[in-house]
Design a protein that fits this description.
Layout lengths: L7 E6 L8 H19 L14 H15 L7 E6 L3 H9 L1 H8 L4 H13 L6 E6 L7 H4 L22 H11 L17 H14 L9 H4 L2 H8 L4 H8 L15 H4 L4 H10 L4 E4 L5 E4 L3 H15 L14 H5 L3 H18 L5 H13 L5 E11 L2 E13 L6 E9 L7 H22 L11 E9 L2 E7 L1
Parallel strand pairs: 1-2, 2-3, 8-9
Antiparallel strand pairs: 4-5, 6-7, 7-8, 9-10
Length: about 475
């Protein structure tokens, strides 16, 4: 470009700032960046005032020094700030009041960015432009309102910066291992989380086999952080986000100034989780744009949080590991046991917030995260002659071992807010069971289900306080 190699470069990196004594450590990070600048451009003879102990005052003094020392008044700084809100996101998850304090009008972070803005607006400013990158855009509205800035996070031109494309993952797999010794299915066209991808492939190499139930330990560490982030969202909107029904309708709110709002609305909450990587774009069954949980690791985290919000006795007991017997022996008793716990803790006091779809999603996630040799589908599309019929089976589990059981499960959920005669309850419950069985009969015309050996078919009905498991012929 015409201006290439014409700027002084001032680079700051705010990753890894210790949360203890945060303001002091932020100041020390800024100071070190200015020291590095002085070492790179020794000819300017810029000195750091050791009597200044405020990051805003320090950067202001530096700009004054630069303006006085630069050889020409047209000389400018190109300022690069990497991981600009890395530390702030950790604070946001741990202590909302602390986050508001440091990004409020008198906060040290707000004052620092306000000084940058003031400098950029001065005649013969020391700064020509900024390039700011980070892990989200949550703090940008809280501290830099008024900046002339472009957020490229959702620009299609820069989409492939955000992760691995399918071709990149395929190349990485071939570089990592001899794929001919594994069984591997084609993936859909979307981006892959680079950290999860590399960690998964490393685990596959260590184990010597593909792993369907892999969970990344780094994601597990985020569960507490995720819970604290959810508390920032209005309770009524929070329920619409955490319901693990597959996807969320909403739009990305651009203004995420927590100091102005106090708590986040639905669109602001979705935007926060989107920018932090907990949600991504997806399509519903009609091709409409929605937000969805990007991968199985995060879906499990959503489910655990969802369950914890309802359970009167705390988190669901057990690690669900014994669900693996489902794929080995076809024993569905453990699934029934956990579903009874879920329903007995959630539904009695929360019927208005629970849907059949959320129950299906919870059960599907439990199975997905515990079966090693099965492909599990929630809301499986029924196809005849390769064409979708428009119907979806609630839960389908295909066992990769042909001599082991596969499953087709249909759920029915009937809210009950009033008392009914026993004859009415019996009649209506029987009708739900019959309806589910009729659906299963139609599903068996599916191209894959009709040819699956050892397929076990179940109807699961919860109605009027009763949970029914019934195996179909």
């Amino acid at each position: 470009t015409p201006q290439r190699n014409s700027f002084y470069i001032l680079r700051m990196d705010f990753s890894g700032i210790d949360q203890k004594n945060l303001e002091e450590n932020f100041f020390l990070s800024v100071k070190q960046s200015l020291v590095n600048f002085g070492l790179m451009y020794r000819n300017l003879n810029i000195s750091i005032d050791e009597n200044i102990h405020s990051s805003a005052a320090l950067i202001g003094n530096f700009f004054s020094e630069f303006r006085a020392a630069r050889p020409h008044s047209s000389d400018r700084i190109f300022m690069i700030i990497d991981e600009y809100d890395n530390f702030a996101n950790d604070v946001l998850a741990a202590d909302t009041d602390k986050f508001k304090g440091m990004t409020s009008v008198e906060g040290f972070v707000k004052n620092f960015y306000a000084r940058l803005k003031a400098e950029s607006n001065m005649p013969e400013s020391a700064i020509e432009r900024f390039f700011i990158t980070g892990v989200s855009s949550i703090m940008i509205n809280s501290v830099t309102s008024g900046f002339d800035s472009d957020n490229i996070s959702q620009d299609p031109l820069f989409n492939e910066m955000a992760g691995f494309t399918e071709n990149e993952v395929r190349d990485l797999i071939h570089q990592t291992m001899d794929l001919s010794i594994y069984s591997c299915k084609n993936a859909k066209e979307h981006l892959f989380n680079s950290s999860l991808t590399v960690n998964y492939l490393r685990e596959v190499m260590n184990c010597g086999e593909l792993i369907n139930s892999y969970t990344d330990e780094n994601v597990n560490l985020d569960i507490y952080k995720f819970s604290r982030l959810m508390e920032i969202i209005n309770v009524q909107d929070r329920m619409r986000i955490i319901n693990p029904c597959g996807y969320i309708y909403g739009s990305l709110e651009k203004n995420l100034n927590l100091n102005a709002e106090g708590t986040y609305t639905l669109s602001q909450g979705v935007a926060m989780l989107f920018y932090l990587g907990y949600l991504t774009y997806g399509l519903d069954e009609f091709g409409g744009l929605v937000f969805k949980v990007p991968n199985l690791c995060y879906r499990k985290m959503f489910m655990q949080y969802y369950l914890s919000t309802f359970f009167s006795k705390g988190v669901l007991a057990g690690d669900f590991g014994d669900l693996r017997y489902l794929e080995e022996t076809g024993d569905i008793s453990k699934l029934k046991h956990y579903l009874e716990q879920i329903i007995s803790n959630i539904i009695p006091d929360n019927e208005k917030d629970v849907t059949e779809r959320s129950i299906v999603s919870i059960v599907g996630t439990l199975i997905l995260t515990n079966l090693r040799h099965c492909s599990t589908y929630v809301e499986y599309d029924i196809r005849k002659g390769g064409i979708k019929t428009g119907e979806q089976a609630d839960l389908v589990i295909f066992n990769e071992h042909k001599n082991k059981p596969s499953f087709l499960i249909e759920f029915k959920y009937k809210r009950s807010t009033a008392q009914h005669r026993s004859e009415t309850v019996k009649k209506n419950t029987a009708a739900l069971v019959d309806s589910a069985k009729e659906q299963i009969d139609r599903y068996m015309e599916d191209d894959s289900l009709s040819t699956t050996a050892g397929l076990q078919k179940y109807v699961i009905v919860y109605a009027y306080g009763n949970l029914i498991f019934e195996k179909c012929d």
